[in-house]
Amino acid sequence: MGNSIGIAVMGASGRMGRMLIDTVNASDAAHLVGVTERPGHDWIGQDLGRALGGAASGVMVHDDPLEVIVKAQAVIDFTTPEATLAHAQLTAQARCVHVIGTTGLRDADIAALDASARHAVIVRAGNMSLGVNLLTRLAQEVAHALDAEFDVEIVESHHRHKVDAPSGTALMLGEAVARGRGVDLSEVSDRGRDGITGARKPGDIGFSAIRGGDIVGEHDVIFAGAGERIVLSHIATDRAIFARGALKAALWGQGQAPGHYSMMSVLGLA
Predict the structure, then answer these.
(1) What is the pLDDT of residues 143-189, one digit of tens each?
(2) For the chain, where do the domains classified as CATH 3.30.360.10 start and end?
(3) Is 158 noted as a catalytic residue in this protein?
(4) Which CATH architecture has domain 130-236?
(5) Which residues of the chain form CATH 3.40.50.720?
(6) Cβ of 23: how many Cβ atoms within 10 Å?
(7) How many CB atoms lie within 10 A of CB 149?
(8) How many distinct helices (H) and strands (E) make up the chain?
(9) How confident is the model at residue 158, as a pLDDT?
């Protein structure tokens, strides 16, 4: 396949897994070398094409991630924090590019990924889309330009099946605002309002989560001052934007020095 990069997709049967498979299969720069599913899944041991209801593809579905990682030059991983950490240990050993779109990672999880990134390239983002990453940069710049008299609210909307809140993208935007203001997000984050909460604390960064229907992803960063508001928005209507961004990251990671990168590096905005 010439210079085509071998890609492994972790979690093949989910919405993102299927979209990633379609995106890799449609690419001239990459090809699919393996996919995984959790142990006990009906697809284990089947040909992926057959499992998807089509013709045989020659790619089998495995429950052992090592089976596919050893064949791959890059792994794309939108799974769970527990699975992602286990995958990172294997990609570090294989010196394989690990693109992570998994959300819900804790500080301890990030520290573990930092350790793996000493040996291999990790590209991690709460959102892989070009537009969202540009929004992140804009939010940081606006936050830097405005003082704490402008209250900041981050409002995110997703489909009813999303299990974590705030979304990884909302937290990424919150981190950008905090960087712009030179503060630690953990010290100014306001995620819960119910009942008599009292007046808003100056300098806090608020988060609100909406869940319903089939919303792909919508994010607003609201800077609310006296007599005026600035609203930065991104609306995703097609999950394919995340898959295309993840593939771009996997291709970018080839030949890079080991490290823990973000999409800002991939897009030349770091």
Answers:
(1) 999 999 999 999 999 999 998 899 989 999 999 999 999 999 999 99
(2) 130-236
(3) yes
(4) 2-Layer Sandwich (3.30)
(5) 5-124+239-266
(6) 24
(7) 10
(8) 10, 12
(9) 96
Residues 41, 119, 159, 162: which is the catalytic one? 162
Q: Is the peptide bond before 39 cis (omega within 30 degrees of 0)?
A: no
DSSP element (H, E) containing 219: strand 217-225
Q: Tell me how far apart the alpha carbons of residues 116 and 261 are, in angstroms, rounded to a whole number.
A: 12
| pLDDT at residue 168 in the model | 87
d(CA 7, CA 10): 10
Q: Is 201 a catalytic residue?
A: no
User: What interhelical angle do 240-252 and 130-145 show, nearest 10?
Assistant: 90
Q: Does the pLDDT at position 1 exceed 70?
A: no
Q: pLDDT tens across 2-18, in order?
A: 689 999 999 999 989 99
Class of the CATH domain delimited by 5-124+239-266: alpha beta
Catalytic residue among 62, 87, 158, 260: 158
